[in-house]
Amino acid sequence: MIQVPKTLIFWIAVLLMAIGYSWITYAMLAGKVFSDFPAHLDIWNFYQERGKIPFPPLYYLSFFGISTLIPSPQSLKIGLLILVSLSWLGKFLLTYRYLSPVFGARSWTPWIPLGLILFFPISAWMGEGAYWFLGKMTPNLWHNGSTIFVFPFCMLLFGEVQKWFSGEKPNFFRIGLWTLLILGIKPNFLFGLIPALISLIFLSEVGQKSILPIIIYSGTVLLFLLGSKWMIFSNSSEQSLFFNFNARGDVILDPFGVWLQLSENPFWDLFGSFPFLMGSLACFGRTLGNDSVFRLAFSTFCFAMLVFFLFAESGPGYLDGNFYWQIPISLFILYLVIAKILWSTFSQNPDKKPSDRLKMQLLSFLFALHVFSGLAYLWRITETGQYF
Fold this sequence. Notes:
Order of helices and strands: HHHHHHHHHHEHHHHEHH
Radius of gyration: 21 Å
Structural class: mainly alpha
Number of domains: 1
Keywords: Membrane, Transmembrane, Transmembrane helix
Strand content: under 5%
Transmembrane segments: 7-29, 53-71, 78-99, 111-134, 141-158, 178-202, 214-233, 267-285, 292-311, 323-342, 362-379
Largest sheet: 2 strands, antiparallel
């Protein structure tokens, strides 16, 4: 049997991902599938007509900047399509780069990041209600452009801050750059990362030399987050470039309020979201728990969930779920870390126990179920025209 070169499979995977997600984004921009994209275009046009810029600004400025290079009446839509497509490509390439050192030169290696990008909560098919997305915790989403755009920068930031916990020296310029970009696009990922960094200090997870840099970094980011909160909810100066025409409401404590409004079956929505995560913890919990990078990723995800469950935005944006967006990013990164640790441990162990082989087979089955559910979800949204 002829072995297909890895490079060919890699580019086939890239092509499938690029074509598939560009087509889905196009369908959303064209109004064939309901999404946030048309609303974002309307927001930009509304603010631009009044000489203002929405805050945070970088998402809007990026697709507008691309649109200025396109001589077409639909340049704004095309600019957003290009931005989102490049973001998906960046997410795929970063996933491949993170995993390829442990998966090696195997011909099927490129399919693992493609599978992770298709990951979705396991759906009950006929047992599901009207919602397949709302109420569930997914590592991927397709309808929100700002979250898609910020995804690669969150992955890059995690790749640097994890060095505080793995004994490496982080690049502070990169940490600052990725953080500023995230703050300027969509800061949600920091809602989980910063509490995780602070809590792990108290649990003595880092060396003495890393404590002060983490404290300075976390404190600085918290100040920026407070400033962003003021800009979004309280900026009432009409002279401000970032004057918020929709500055109504505030951040409120509302335990489980938004989630219970959106979830049709809370038990199933939680259970169906995490079979692979629960299986990984049940089968290899000790192996994962001994890894400092996993503890950082898991803590970030737990705090991301906690923020969503505890806080909400009062006013007309209540059901927008604006404290949800950190969950897909932190959960995707957690799955990346799990995949890397488990495959590295399993492949490097020459004396594999039959029980370990069985556990890996079980996790492979759960992985495939999540990917299959992702494909089913994409088919469903193209058929129904609704992402939820």
